[in-house]
Amino acid sequence: MKEFLDKDFLLQTDTAKELYHEHAEKMPIIDYHCHLIPQMVAENKRFDSIAQIWLMGDHYKWRAMRSNGVDERFCTGKDTTDWEKFEKWAETVPYTFRNPLYHWTHLELKTAFGIDKRLNPETAKEIYEECNRQIASDPKFCPQGMMAHYNVKVVCTTDDPADTLEWHKMVAAQKDAKTRMIPAWRPDAAMNIEAASWKGYIDKLQSVSGVAIVDFTSLNEALQKRHDFFASMGCKLSDHGIEEFYDEPYTDAEVNEIMKKALAGKELTLLEIRKYKHAYLFSQAKMDYAAGWTQQYHYGAIRNNNTKMFYALGADTGFDSIGEFTTAKAMSHFLDELNMQNSLAKTILYCLNPSANEVIATMLGNFQDGSVAGKIQFGSGWWFLDQKDGMEKQMMALSNLGLLSRFVGMLTDSRSFLSYPRHEYFRRTLCNILGNDIENGMIPYTGYEKQRMQQMVEDICYNNANNYFNF
User: Fold this and answer.
1) Which residues lie closer than 8 Å to 337 by C-beta, 6 or more apart?
2) Cβ–Cβ contacts within 10 Å for residue 207, how many?
3) Cα distance between residue 121 and residue 419, in whole Å
4) 298-313 pLDDT, tens digit each
5) Beta strand ranges found along 130-288 (DSSP E)
């Protein structure tokens, strides 16, 4: 029986072990999409306990705890202590067998704290106290220290157009910061015209930009000013969280009237909402192309399904799921429309429903133009798909229908500074796939081809992303 989480974890062949230990393992990390809090990085926040690092904002763990019958007060409650929350997580961990949380939990304990013990009710107190002892005494457990520990060269946060980016300025001025923190443009709030918060957000954007927003034309003027500011701060990526792509024809005059109607507080029809979103995403894409940015589209989630808990806790608290959307034609038309106007930027497409893997993998080839290797990318397994099975399926589809060798690799999509072992998890999975193919005689591994394979692993882990984003 193979030992759990040994040095060859997930590596089934000698070739996989060689590819990982001699090539993948040594590569730095570029985390080009995450949800870390920039203020915590800038101030290098000192955490009081492992519970704060692990359980604060981690809706993956909250979902598992709720499923295990843990009361909400031990997930998000204000009337429970750090120990009480940690204890409930420790009680839940043995019930997460075959869930990636079991692997991630123990990878993080081992790689960050050097703790090679299983977390369960019997070991909970000992592990909690040892983690807290290290957190209190070792500056490594501050945000910048943890990123340096995991050899993170660049981290891209997720930032609203109205953000001042003051924390990014602060980090950029810190000469001893080993990780470069770059903002990423996430303009969803202005797109979601049907949301109750939309009008208030437009007022905020108007104030920050200094542009009186009275219609869609002036909205784009305000957004362009903020886009330019983000570019001046080193931003190179946009990111859009959308349910689906939109394909409803519109005119500029129509969209201006739709926006005026929304500003006046009048209810919009579904068709008007979709026309607005189509126009909005298209105008954003043209801004990205003009700035030389990469645009990312995360699509396919149904968010905030539990209305009761949304009212109690707000968004991003663990009540989202995979959605079913027939969006291939709309995606194709959207990309084609941009391409016809010579305005199609480098693009990363992420799907949350694995049934769309082959859809995206074939969509890429429609719009590769030879200007950049892998200009249109199939994003790594995202959210519910960032586990071993999801990553394997994503890479299998990309391998069969595109060029895995040009893939820009993994990201954390996380709110935790201890989540970087997800890159290790991905790299081990990648090397295991390639190692199995080599040992089964499906890929040659001598001479030039051996060097190409070794370089391919290093490229997917780091070099491709570094070159693609021009970091």
Assistant:
1) 282
2) 12
3) 23
4) 999 999 999 999 999 9
5) 152-156, 180-182, 237-242
